[in-house]
Specification:
The complex is a heterodimer of chains A (323) and B (275). With 323 residues, chain A is mainly α. Chain A is 77% helix and 1% strand. The longest helix of chain A is centred in the middle third of the chain and has 39 residues. The relative contact order of chain A is 0.15. The model of chain A has no long low-confidence stretch (mean pLDDT 81). Chain B has 275 residues and is mainly α. Chain B is elongated and about 75 Å long. Classes of the chains: A mainly alpha (323), B mainly alpha (275).
Chain lengths: 323, 275
């Protein structure tokens, strides 16, 4: 029971983070040079004077700062993130439309990185100071230094343009009109390269953390005890050490959640993946600041949600955690 | 320190990394002499594959890719080092204040630090560059703003750990002032940890910078690796070399800095050496 109280405590801690982002957003708009209303409306000249006037009234930009702040927070807490003049649609609708593909991409890359990273880290630690350990370490170091967008482009050159195995870009082949499993297969084929480009860095990171964490467990009393009981090495590693060594990896995964979203922006741009990242890129090019701020807010909410899931897993995996 | 230097020299990978970095620095210094016309100038026929005249080929506008890679090295190193240095200084100040004064100040500052660690860093950096309009300075500021929390937590942790040690208590008893304890005793003792983490920060700063430049958020008048790759994207189908070589430059630079960082970590923090 106390474990769940701990989780509730973490849930409560998420509130100030969301609030902090709203405060940050509010001040970021004011940091921009020029009139806030025209900044919100996008690049100068893009919006009609009527729309700029509407924005000014809506956010109360002619009233004193504290009033403006309250107006902004109230709107945001009602998930009213404003209107994108460029796209002729409310910001929230635009983001929600694109959220599915991004979540699919992120969760695929994340799961792949976590599963493979744990496995590789474990293999490296078990075979410490052998050629296998060295090979994994070198591969890890290289993946750790490769920018995701460049990796994506190189994958396109090799697997799409040269070998012709995988589609260059997009989410699915709409022209073919696939349905059911055919469609799932089609989307999966489109997903392979973006997920690799996004996930490889994290794969390397989790491998490193897992290896170090496994080595830390090697000398622990419970491992010595298990060995003294005459258990096989396989059972010691998978039955005892794996669960303990995995906890730091999970912590790192939670910490890195925010970076995963940043990475998906660049990778989505490379592959024309119709997600929030591509939306952010188009918003960037048209300097649609309000849309960008909305994306920032929603992304931060997603990060908080991922952190809570990680926390939940932590509580489930480690019975020692209490409030 | 000579002891640390000897330990560093024994780590072959770290020495290799240091040599590669030295070469990259040399290239970035020699760039104006090797390519006096600059990386933006027309060098020859567009989209030429690598040849003797253009070892890395030319791009869609007939610019020499090699010149761009050389000038990009200067941009990336400059931004990486400046941003990491600012982040280290700011982070050390925040972490130092939190760790030295503890209490409410500590709680508030650490909450702020955690907040900056949670929010999506790349998105915030993007927003800052857009708002401040893309330039060398705004990119440095944006990267520094999202990079300092790690240093702050590190310095705070070290300060808290050192705070109860005898030599600190002794100088407190001798009536040493706050600044004296901070600058003479606490900071020098966590300098090796700061140097290690700071050097790794240069690598992440360069990765951030190239990502921003790739999205068109770099200084438009300065050549950079990210800009080259984003310009080469359109001709990816016909000219693979325009995107490939700047990427290899990024990879080599970041990899070498990471190797040196790991080497420094082993040399300066011998406690961790058994791992």
């Amino acid at each position: 029971m106390r474990r769940w109280r701990y989780f509730g405590y973490r849930l409560l801690l998420a509130v100030p983070v969301i609030f902090g982002i709203l405060i940050l957003n509010f001040f970021l708009i004011r940091l921009a040079p020029g009139d806030a209303a025209s900044v919100l409306a996008g690049e100068s000249g893009a919006a009609t004077p009527e729309y700029t006037e509407l924005l000014r009234q809506k956010f109360g930009l002619d009233r004193p700062m504290p009033e403006q702040f309250i107006a902004y927070i109230t709107a945001a807490l009602h998930f009213d993130l404003g209107f994108s003049f460029r796209n002729d649609s409310p910001v929230l609708d635009l983001i929600l439309e694109r959220l599915g593909p991004t979540l699919l991409l992120m969760s695929t890359a994340f799961t792949m990185a976590l599963a493979l990273g744990t496995l590789l880290g474990l293999l490296a630690a078990v075979a410490r100071n052998t050629w296998r350990d060295a090979a994994i370490s070198v591969a890890t170091l290289i993946c750790y230094a490769t920018p995701g967008f460049w990796l994506g482009l190189m994958l396109i050159v090799v697997f799409s343009l040269t070998l012709g195995w995988l589609p260059t870009s997009g989410f699915e082949n709409i022209a073919e009109g696939y349905e059911g499993w055919e469609r799932v297969r089609d989307i999966a084929l489109h997903l392979v390269m973006p997920a690799m480009a996004l996930g490889l860095f994290y794969l390397a990171l989790y491998t490193r953390v897992m290896r170090a964490s496994m080595l830390e467990q090697t000398g622990m009393d419970y491992v010595v005890t298990a060995r003294a009981k005459g258990q096989t090495e396989t059972r010691i590693v998978f039955g005892h050490m794996l669960r303990n060594a995995f906890l730091p990896v999970l912590t790192m995964a939670g910490v890195q959640a925010g970076n995963l979203i940043g990475g998906s922006i660049v990778v989505e741009t490379v592959f024309g993946w119709p997600g929030v990242g591509t939306l952010a890129f188009t918003a960037l090019q048209s300097r649609d600041l309000n849309l960008l701020l909305g994306i920032f807010f929603i992304s931060a909410c997603i990060v908080v949600a991922i952190n809570l899931i990680v926390e939940l897993l932590y509580v489930l995996l480690d019975p020692r955690i209490q409030a | 320190m000579p002891d640390g230097l000897r330990r560093f020299a024994r780590n072959r990978m770290a020495v290799l990394g240091a040599i590669v970095i030295a070469i990259i620095v040399l290239v970035s210094i020699l760039a104006p002499f090797l390519y006096p016309k600059g990386a933006f100038s027309l060098a020859g026929q567009p989209l030429q594959p690598p040849s003797l005249q253009f070892p890395l080929g030319t791009d869609a506008l007939g610019r020499d890719v090699a010149a761009g890679v050389a000038e990009g090295a200067r941009t990336s190193l400059l931004i990486g080092i400046a941003a990491a240095l600012s982040a280290v200084i700011f982070g050390a100040v925040i972490g130092g204040i939190a760790g030295y004064y503890r209490g409410t100040v500590d709680i508030v500052l650490m909450r702020v630090t955690e907040f900056f660690q949670t929010i999506p860093a790349f998105l915030l950096a993007m927003l800052l560059v857009v708002i401040l309009s893309p330039s060398l300075l705004s990119v440095i500021i944006a990267i520094a703003v999202v990079s300092w929390p790690g240093i702050a937590r590190l310095v705070r942790g070290e300060f808290v750990a050192l705070g109860g040690r005898e030599f600190i208590l002794a100088s407190l008893g001798l009536g040493a002032s706050g600044p004296r304890i901070i600058f003479r005793h606490l900071l020098p003792n966590c300098l090796s940890a700061i140097i290690t983490v700071g050097s790794l920060l240069v690598a992440t700063a360069i990765l951030l910078e190239t990502g921003l430049a790739f999205l068109g958020l770099g200084d438009p008048n300065i050549m950079s690796w990210g800009l080259q790759i984003s310009a080469g994207r359109v001709s990816l189908r016909t000219a693979w070399w325009v995107c490939t070589f700047p990427g290899i430059a990024i990879l080599l630079t970041v990899l070498s800095i990471n190797l040196v960082g790991d080497g420094l970590n082993e040399a300066l923090n011998p406690r961790l050496r058994e791992r």
